[in-house]
């Protein structure tokens, strides 16, 4: 038995061991913590939002500015004709006419058609200073042309009576007129700034918003002035360019001192105060947009203005 070879030990076959299950720990994503930088802030509130390269030299390098100025002139002329004829006696007709005018002009110039709007655009740096000045000049010329056309239809005698009444009202109830003009201009400026984001994508929405605001403030002014101050007729337009043409200079005066005082009061009530109101309205709109985290409603304005500036 000594020669007997030792038996090879059989390999122990252990059952196939299963790999231990590795428990995958759920990796929880860290909660997104809103930092202070994500919060709405007023950073860049006064930053320039218009074309930084536009100035008195570059603005005339392309003919697009002329198309914009023609649009502002024609549009303001149509508004002047509208207010000199219909006034606020037919609000529905006025609303429809205003919608048509704004839709027709918005693609040319952005349809400011009112110095209080243009001043608000300049103050909030949506528009360069040179463009704003040119727009206001075009609006004044358009209002003057509208007055000429209206007088051409033999409305001069009636217009003279209305003008004198407006000037007298501005002198006798200056603070009432100025406050209503300021409030109405703030509403128009605010609504214009809010509506301009629709100017390119939906001109009809833009026009309806702006014109509805105008009809609202005109109706409000007439009702308040008649019910609380016992005045008859309408002495409000909320457009300094049109006001310059027929609401400022009195037709009669007892002397130079009386003339200067009456004209100065009318100038303050119908031009200076509405422009201040327009600036306030634009800044209130920007402040609300910035605090709401919506940014400024000017991106579409730049796109809408591609036809007049690069």
Briefly say what this structure is.
With 310 residues, the protein is mostly helical. 61% of the residues lie in helices and 0% in strands. It is built from ten helices and no strands.
Provide the CATH superfamily: Glycerol uptake facilitator protein
Uncertain stretches: 154-158, 297-310
Put simply, the count of helices is 10
Helical content class: 55-70%
Approximate shape: globular
**Rg to the nearest angstrom?**
33 Å
What's the CATH architecture? Up-down Bundle
- First and last CA, distance: 110 Å
Q: Give the CATH level 1 class.
A: Mainly Alpha
| The number of domains | 1
Profile the largest sheet.
none
SSE order in H/E notation?
HHHHHHHHHH
Estimate what percentage of residues fall within beta strands: under 5%
């Amino acid at each position: 038995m000594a020669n007997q070879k030792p038996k090879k030990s059989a390999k122990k076959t252990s059952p196939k061991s299963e790999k231990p299950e590795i428990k995958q720990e759920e990796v929880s994503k860290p909660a997104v913590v809103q930092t202070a930088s994500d919060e709405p802030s007023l950073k860049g509130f006064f930053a320039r939002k218009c074309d930084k390269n536009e100035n008195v030299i570059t603005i005339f390098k392309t003919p697009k500015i002329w198309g914009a100025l023609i649009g502002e002139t024609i549009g303001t002329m149509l508004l002047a004709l509208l207010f000199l004829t219909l006034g606020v006696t037919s609000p529905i007709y006025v609303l429809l006419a205003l919608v048509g005018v704004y839709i027709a002009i918005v693609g040319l110039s952005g349809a400011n058609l009112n110095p209080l709007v243009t001043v608000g655009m300049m103050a909030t740096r949506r528009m360069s200073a040179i463009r704003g000045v040119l727009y206001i000049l075009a609006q004044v010329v358009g209002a003057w042309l509208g007055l000429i056309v209206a007088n051409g239809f033999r409305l001069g005698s009636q217009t003279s009576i209305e003008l004198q009444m407006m000037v007298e009202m501005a002198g006798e109830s200056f603070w009432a007129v100025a406050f209503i003009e300021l409030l109405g201009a703030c509403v128009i400026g605010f609504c214009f700034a809010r509506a301009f984001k629709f100017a390119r994508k939906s001109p009809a929405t833009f026009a309806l918003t702006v014109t509805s605001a105008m009809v609202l403030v005109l109706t409000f002014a007439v009702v308040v002035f008649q019910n609380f101050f016992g005045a008859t007729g309408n002495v409000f337009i909320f457009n300094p360019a049109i006001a310059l043409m027929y609401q400022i200079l009195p037709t009669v005066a007892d002397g130079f001192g009386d003339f200067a005082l009456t004209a100065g009061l009318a100038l303050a009530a119908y031009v200076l105060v509405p422009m201040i109101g327009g600036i306030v309205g634009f800044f209130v709109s920007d402040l609300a947009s910035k605090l709401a985290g919506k940014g400024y409603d000017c991106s579409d304005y730049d796109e809408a203005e591609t036809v007049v500036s690069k």
